[in-house]
Amino acid sequence: MAEAGKKKKRRDLDAVMVEETPPAAQKPPFKVLDKENPASDTEIYAKEVLNAMIADNLPPTPNNYSLYFDRLLEDKSESLRKQIQAILELEESNDAENTIELEHRLKQGFSSVKNILGVTANLYKNISLMMKILEKRKHELEENPEIRDALKVVDNLENDVVKLSSILKTQTTKMKGIYDDTAKIVKSVENETIFDNQFGVYNKRYLLSKIKKEIDLIEKFNHQSSLIMIELSRDLKQRVKNEKAIHLMTRTIARLLLKTSRRSDIVAHYGNGMFAMLLKHTDIESAKKASERLSDLVSNSNFFLADQEIQLKISIGVTTIDPNYSVEEIVVSAMDGIEKAYMDKNHDYAISLRS
Question: Which is more confidently placed, 287 or 182?
């Protein structure tokens, strides 16, 4: 049986069609609950996901199962999607979200330390100003020898203020040392962070690490994944010419990316207002469809600047995660797609593939 020894050909996940009810001879050893049980539909779907993974020769690891679980759900009925989504929301516990919250609190704490240092510095400046005022009043009293007693009081007050200023200066120096140490700690943590505070998505460092990991997985299991890069249209930015408005538009794009993405997708800010979406187990045709949906979603979202209504517009570059190329080359390929999109008057996206 030569055919039996051949490696199974991996199928495009979008084309996976698994029978709703397996043949009697292939029924699993466990019992499927009847339709009156609300868990029955989800159990049938869970088995369907596992069958699809087995058919694609994919190891049934938790990450792979979660990815296929999300992908296959897109083709199911709205009622089943709502039912499963309700269950997912009840059991939601995301380690990445917990990490993001921890990073956010850490930066808030550092900001508070910085504010304390600023308040202390202002207090020191006010003490210095008070000393100058005392010096001025002392000169005024010296011009009136008949009020020598008052002059002695001013001298004593000046000595007290000098002592207070000296103590405050020492404490400020110590506080600055604490601030510098805290800044080093925060900087070291930032080198390991995964979250971009500015736009509420993952950061560049996390994106590049995920692309590298996906390359390794593709080399091992031979599936297809894609990368798309997105930026606010340059024509739109040139027309608006308002930095604050452009920043708000870019934040809107980030929110729309999160809205249209699946749980298995990685949405990240690459830098300078450019975003990326890593689409796992997604071939180039499916990535094109995702780009079309994203472009339509953005085009139907208007932005109001004063009394002016502005239609949002983006440009998208699409490329494959090819293990024959480095992470940097794959990212550059997607960026080349953006440049091609600007030259294409019929689409907001373009495909760029390394030859």
Answer: 287
